[in-house]
Amino acid sequence: MVLGELGSALAGALRKLGEHTVVDEEVMDACLKEVTKALLQADVNVQYVVQMKKNIVKQVNIQELAAGLNARKLLEKAVFNELVNMLEGGGAEVKEKFVPKKGKPNVVMFVGLQGCGKTTTCTKYAYHFQKKGYKPALVCADTFRAGAFDQLKQNATKARIPFYGSYTETDPAKIAADGVERFKDEKNDLIIVDTSGRHKQEDSLFEEMRQVAAAVQPDMTIFVMDSSIGQAAQDQARAFKATVDVGSVIITKLDGHAKGGGAISAVAATKSPIAFIGTGEHIDEFEAFDTKPFVSRLLGLGDWTGLIDKINDVIPMDQQPELMDKLVAGQFTMRILYEQFANIQKMGPMSSVMSMIPGMDGMLPKGQEKASQAKIKRMMCLMDSMTDEELDTTSLKILQDPKRMERIGRGAGRGPGDVVELVEEYKRMSKMMGKMKGMKMPKKGGYGHSQAMAQNMQQMAGAIPPHMLKQMGSMAGLQNMMKQLEGKDMGKMMEQMGGMKGMGKMMKQMGM
Ligand SMILES: Nc1nc2c(ncn2[C@@H]2O[C@H](COP(=O)(O)OP(=O)(O)OP(=O)(O)O)[C@@H](O)[C@H]2O)c(=O)[nH]1
Q1: Which domains are seen in the chain, by residue range?
Q2: What is the pLDDT of residues 436-454, one digit of tens each?
Q3: Which of 49, 138, 212, 339 makes the best surface tag, with the fewest CB within 10 Å?
Q4: DSSP state, 400?
């Protein structure tokens, strides 16, 4: 989880408060001191921290605490509100989030200093929207850095996104205009223009940026900011904002180091929302940023809505009932196992998934993620050499037939031990999934059956490894999730929980 150290320090301070039976001024002061220290250590601007502390004190009335109210909850809420407030631009008016309109040629220009991760982020952005059904295209208007076009070309080719650039043209505004025109003709609905980043010659960078903007008339200008520069981001953000019409911010490199607070608080200077954050070099290490769920994860309170959205991204809603029907009918096959593995891979790094579950952030030991992924790959490779009959059967007689097992192993270039491992895995999963047989499914248009819902909750709790469930606050944690999702269609939700249940089991199987 990004800013993990800040999060655990804050959560730790709040947890300590819960240990006191009586919360007086002294206890509260000590807690606030720790909260302040954590924020300063994470490089959050000192002015914000001072203001934040004042606001928290205002919100948490010590007399009320003495009256026996849950001090931890009250303070947690105040800290939550203040962090949200800071990330949303200190209460100032912040622009609405930009969502490209489908079917129209949306032009998005990326700006930022050299090395901030702009080119990488352009591809991540394109890939994100491609998964959502857009037709993105990339234009390289960076004529300053030798190799910039090759880098974009390579990234774009990998993600199968059309691109445009030139090795000979030296005028970035011309390349940008030509590229945008070409992709408008080709009916691409998200045209992303990557511009040059520079270190020192900032005046010429800004002039060039102006020219490119004038040439392509972007619908949105995204400022990419490297979080590792800390509070220096503040001046940078102001300078960019003063030159071009920055409407969104993407913060990169929020993985791996604790001091993300500087950059995050600097965003307030742009009066623009953070649209996404980059959490690694890989194309899917990119997350849409929503302040409240982010802060919730930061404080170790989880982000159920984000998790469910992620599951929806991976298993489209219309395919979930089909999967559930098969499971309820007790037809767990190798093909379903394969699909589940593919879904896990699509969900991206398991550590980022875990951070959406309350209390689970940072629980995944280093190295285990890699080992699990290798195991999944190995098993999928074996399944690739299975026949349709083997993939669609539930008969162990077929799956454990020695001749077939030998052939499958040979076909995948694997030894017999690996095939045995796969079949054992299938047997374990099949047994577990068998528990879903006969599970009461919600009727279309709503759940409306509290007894069945309670039963499913129990089943779901049973699917989550006990140590994880404990971290989540046991059944209360699950119920909390329901509360957070109040107002959503319960029928849909239970279908989603089917997906989650599958995930929970899978994680258990993978030793997580
Ligand atoms: N760890 C991490 N690395 C990142 C992230 N985003 C980008 N990078 C890395 O940062 C380095 C610079 O990224 P580029 O995309 O080349 O930067 P740029 O801003 O386009 O650079 P110029 O074209 O010179 O302006 C590369 O090594 C990227 O892999 C991120 O979110 N996390």
Answers
A1: 4-87 (1.20.120.140), 106-298 (3.40.50.300), 304-509 (1.10.260.30)
A2: 565 555 444 343 444 444 5
A3: 339
A4: T
